[in-house]
Amino acid sequence: MRTLSRSSASLSMILFFMLTSSQAYAWHDKTHLSIAEAAGFALWYSAAAPDVAKSKTEFRSIEEKNHYFNNNAHKEVDEALVLEQSARYNKTGDVEGHLYGAIIGAVRAYNADSVAGKYAEYPLVFCAHYIGDLSMPLHNTEYDDFNKTRHSVNDGIIESSVRNNIGYIQRNIKEINIENESDLAREIAKVANTARKLGAKIREENRNMTQDEAYMQIIQSSSLFKAVLKYAGKKPC
């Protein structure tokens, strides 16, 4: 019994560390898959894979910083900030994270692999996931007690319904035209600021997102990712 108790205690400590560490997951898996599928991505079923990669200890320090930006200064996101973060893609030791630059970095990786004649779909899988993270309010605000306490609940606000509502997401997708990287950076900033403001609102009101709010957020992600696919020369499936 003593051995079992020690094992249970060890497991509890591990779970506590996982839940309270700086690593945070955005939308649960089905929500990520639905964002990518609604956008017409052929590999939509892989859109949760970056979180799987992040869960492996040897990859965590590289990958986790691509999934959020702890906006402790509450600053407006603009094109310059997005492009500045792109130099930090896959960089370790970045306390605040660099989600916005990771989207740019993933698109650049896709373009580089395509030009080199390589199989280039996997960078778009990462891009799909990052753009999903982009609309999650708590991935655009400080990682404080409110964020830590409510993060998992807000990740899963629409998880039980979203796979049945892909048509709804598609019908509400907004057309976005991206001609160059500056356009992409500006569109990233728009979604980031919407998410940041919603994050501030639910924090002020001490509540979770509503389902309607969550759907409005992921529709922005699907809209942007659909535009990115078009920009990359990919036909929707």
Can you walk me through this structure?
By secondary structure, the chain is mainly alpha-helical. The chain has one domain (27-231): P1 Nuclease, CATH 1.10.575. Helix content is 60%, strand content 0%. The chain has helices at 2-20, 29-38, 49-54, 57-63, 79-86, 99-115, 121-134, 145-155, 166-171, 181-204, 211-231. Helix 2 packs across helix 7, helix 5 packs across helix 10 and helix 10 runs antiparallel to helix 11 (211-231). The longest helix has 24 residues, at 181-204. The chain is globular. The N and C termini lie far apart (56 Å).
Question: What does the secondary structure layout of this molecule look like, with pairings?
Answer:
Blueprint lengths: L1 H19 L8 H10 L10 H6 L2 H7 L15 H8 L12 H17 L5 H14 L10 H11 L10 H6 L9 H24 L6 H21 L6
Helix pairs in contact: 2-7, 2-11, 5-6, 5-10, 6-7, 7-11, 10-11
In short:
The chain has 237 residues and is mostly helical. It is built from eleven helices and no strands.
